[in-house]
Design goal:
Number of domains: 2
Structural class: alpha+beta
Order of helices and strands: HHEEEEEEHHHHHHHHH
Largest sheet: 6 strands, antiparallel
CATH class of the largest domain: Mainly Alpha
Strand content: 15-25%
Oligomer: single chain
Helix content: 55-70%
Distance between the termini: 46 Å
Length: 378
């Protein structure tokens, strides 16, 4: 059972993903805090003010709202809203209710707009397109996704919270996700087995490099407030450096999945189309395919990280401390390590997986015709 302290430490994540479960009370400096769904009855006032000492403008509102659930259901409250997103009449949101244990004073504020309907629409669109264009492979992929989510929430997170090594738990669960997910999606066959062995072998090699880099660069694992809160919440019971390393390994396995499956299927198809081809020729042709895949995926990986870290890149541009100092700071160094380790893993994954698949799939009769459902097209 999730404790009250864990609810407080994960408040941001819980509010975004599971607002319906966020009514639990937590104790923060003697105050009682709850989250309740509410609806805006009226916007009494709206203005732009300058945040004192910063020169930065911010919009504020005076809202009149009705509480829709929890112990204050039906209550009408009026309060100032300084949340970055301005609400409109009739808008639904989650209200943060803080009651002082000293004098019983009630304080209300906007915790988050109500986003679940939008998320539900997006999820339905994703599943519908997956089934429509993915066919049976889409169904298998969705089943694999469901299994991955279960492993993350019922094995990975509880395992780390229980004090087990984040490195071992992360690698173990990620490997299990890849193995189970690969066989569910692509079937029990030698091509899938070759891809899995290629992924695991690549992770062992790249993981050793990542372990050295994390320690040689003196990364502490503290790149944001969430790590600080988690450390206090667990009384220092979680190894933050190990958690950082485990996260890098999970991300590495994630990006390796596509290229490993693609290379294994490429080798399978080459053997099927040219039974006269020997091991060296198949390896050479498959590597040619893999090089194109590397170029596309490494660029995609870098762009994805840039998109996720865009505010940090803008901070570099506006900082007067110097670009070298900023790049040396832990928050930037950590992201650079993630990008480069992921890219190195992608590059090594091609020759390693291709080599394994070349020897495992040689002489397999009619390899390509037995697995029409999971071909990758390049």
């Amino acid at each position: 059972m999730v404790t009250m302290k864990r609810v407080f430490a994960g408040a941001i994540l819980i509010l975004v993903l599971f607002p319906a479960f966020s009514h639990a009370e937590v104790n923060a400096v003697g105050d009682t805090q709850t989250y309740q769904k509410a609806r805006v009855i009226n916007v009494l006032d709206q203005k732009t003010a300058i945040i004192p000492g910063t020169g930065t403008p911010a919009q504020t509102q005076t809202l009149q709202a009705e509480i829709l659930d929890g112990p204050n259901t039906g209550t009408t409250v009026t309060f100032e809203n300084d949340y970055p997103v301005q609400l409109e009449k009739g808008g639904t949101f989650y209200a943060r209710h803080i009651t002082s244990t000293l004098d019983g004073t009630d304080m209300w504020s906007v915790a988050d707009p109500y986003r679940l309907p939008v998320l539900a629409i997006l999820a339905v669109a994703f599943v519908a397109l997956l089934f429509l264009f993915g066919g049976i492979q889409g169904v298998r992929g969705f089943t694999s996704l469901g299994g991955s989510i279960l492993l993350i929430f019922y094995v990975l997170i509880p395992g780390i919270y229980s004090g087990y090594s984040p490195i071992l738990v992360s690698i173990g669960v990620a490997s299990l996700i890849v193995i189970v997910g690969s066989y569910i999606t692509h079937g029990f066959n030698r091509a899938t087995s070759a891809a899995i062995l290629g992924m695991i072998s690549t992770v062992l090699v790249t993981g050793a490099a990542a372990y050295w880099v994390v320690h040689a660069a003196h990364l502490s694992g503290y790149t944001g407030d969430e790590q600080v809160y988690l450390n206090f919440d667990t009384h220092g019971g979680i190894d933050m450096v190990g958690l950082l390393f485990g996260g890098i390994m999970i991300g590495l396995l994630g990006v390796l999945y596509d290229i490993a499956i693609g290379q294994a299927i490429a080798v399978e198809e080459l053997f099927s189309a040219g039974a006269h081809l020997g091991h060296p020729e198949v390896y050479r042709r498959a590597i040619r395919i893999g090089r194109e895949h590397i170029g596309a995926l490494v660029n995609t990986l870098a762009i994805a990280y840039v998109g996720a870290s865009l505010p940090l890149l803008l901070l570099i541009q506006s900082s007067d401390t110097g670009i070298l100092f900023m790049l040396n700071s832990e928050i930037f160094a950590t992201e650079i390590v993630r990008i480069l380790i992921g890219s190195i893993g992608l590059i090594l994954g091609v020759p390693i997986t291709t080599l394994i698949a070349t020897y495992m799939l040689a002489g397999q009769p009619h390899a390509g015709h037995a697995h029409e459902g999971h071909r990758h097209h390049h």
